[in-house]
């Protein structure tokens, strides 16, 4: 789905269908909607009940796909209907899991979503293997006649988000279930850049993938490291010449060995020795302008001071 620009002055509302879900944008039309209002909207998966969580354009100034209209504000009866479908979703989950087990399918059915109008039913599942789901699809289509049945593959992070529970770090609620609305790409490089242990137990989340939190301070580490001398670099400090033994990006400082002592030195007091010596050599070179010197150095091209 491509991002589209919205003309200036266009009214837009952001709607969520799940408490910590992605925000989708709609045209409020003639309705004066406020944050917290419930609305009925048309989506590719049928009519849905959602909640307004923002007013106006997103910061990017772009939205995904065409701007669909809000069909109408939701009523108390609509909220009761949504509760009814939530109970039916649990029943359908039990049914689907039972049939998957009967068929011997190596899949984990995690959640069922039924559209507000009941015409669309999605079975969210996860598997690490290639599985023929046609027998299961046929059974479910026979049970839920007249509805559009979808079997939707989700990733391990989505599974962890749906199930919830404690995080690998001990946080009472996992980040993905608490506030993450989208998943960012995570790489082992992020752990290396922050000097973290590369032991899988230390950097793997409950989903079995690299922890989402590895990205939280990654950019800050990268920026800070660019302004600090690298480990092993010779530097001048208030304590004398030394060698960097550890970089402390978040403190914007470095640990420097000077003689047999180690000092924590802020970046403002760190001078790369190569750079310092180059400046000293330049300062010691005689000026070629002789008596017309304006740079503060004296001397002729032959290096002798004028008499």
From TrEMBL:
Which regions are flagged for Gly residues bias? 297-307
- What does UniProt give as GO cellular component? cytoplasm
PSP1 C-terminal domain boundaries: 68-153
One short Pfam family name for this protein?
Answer: PSP1
Give the region (Disordered) as residue ranges: 284-307
**Which NCBIfam families does this UniProt record tie to the protein?**
RicT_YaaT_fam
Protein name as annotated: Cell fate regulator YaaT, PSP1 superfamily (Controls sporulation, competence, biofilm development)
Q: Which organism is it from?
A: Thermoflexus hugenholtzii JAD2
């Amino acid at each position: 789905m491509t991002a589209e620009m919205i003309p200036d002055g266009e009214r837009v509302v952001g709607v969520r269908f799940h408490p910590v879900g992605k925000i989708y944008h709609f045209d409020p039309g003639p309705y004066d909607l406020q944050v917290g209002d419930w609305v009925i909207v048309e989506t590719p998966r049928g009519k849905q009940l959602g909640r307004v969580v923002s007013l106006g354009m997103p910061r990017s100034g772009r939205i995904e796909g065409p701007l669909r209209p809000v069909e109408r504000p939701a009523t108390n009866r609509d909220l009761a209907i949504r509760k009814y479908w939530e109970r039916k979703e649990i029943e359908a989950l039990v049914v689907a899991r039972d049939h998957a087990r009967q068929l011997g399918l190596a899949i984990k059915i995690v959640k069922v979503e039924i559209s507000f109008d009941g015409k669309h039913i999605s079975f969210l599942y996860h598997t690490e293997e290639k599985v023929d789901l046609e027998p299961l699809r046929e059974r479910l289509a026979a049970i839920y006649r007249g509805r559009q049945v979808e079997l939707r593959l989700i990733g391990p992070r989505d599974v962890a988000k749906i199930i919830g529970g404690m995080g690998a770090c001990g946080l009472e609620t996992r980040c993905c279930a608490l506030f993450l609305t989208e998943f960012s790409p995570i790489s082992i490089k992020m752990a290396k850049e922050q000097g973290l242990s590369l032991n899988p137990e230390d950097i793997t989340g409950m989903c079995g993938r690299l922890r989402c939190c590895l990205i939280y301070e990654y950019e800050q580490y990268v920026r800070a490291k660019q302004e600090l001398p690298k480990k092993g670099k010779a530097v001048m400090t208030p304590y004398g010449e030394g060698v960097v033994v550890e970089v402390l990006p978040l403190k914007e400082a470095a640990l420097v060995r000077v003689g047999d002592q180690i000092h924590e030195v802020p970046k403002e007091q760190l001078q790369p020795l190569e750079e310092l010596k180059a400046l000293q050599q330049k300062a010691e070179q005689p000026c070629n302008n002789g008596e017309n010197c304006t740079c503060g150095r004296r001397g002729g091209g032959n290096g002798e001071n004028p008499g």
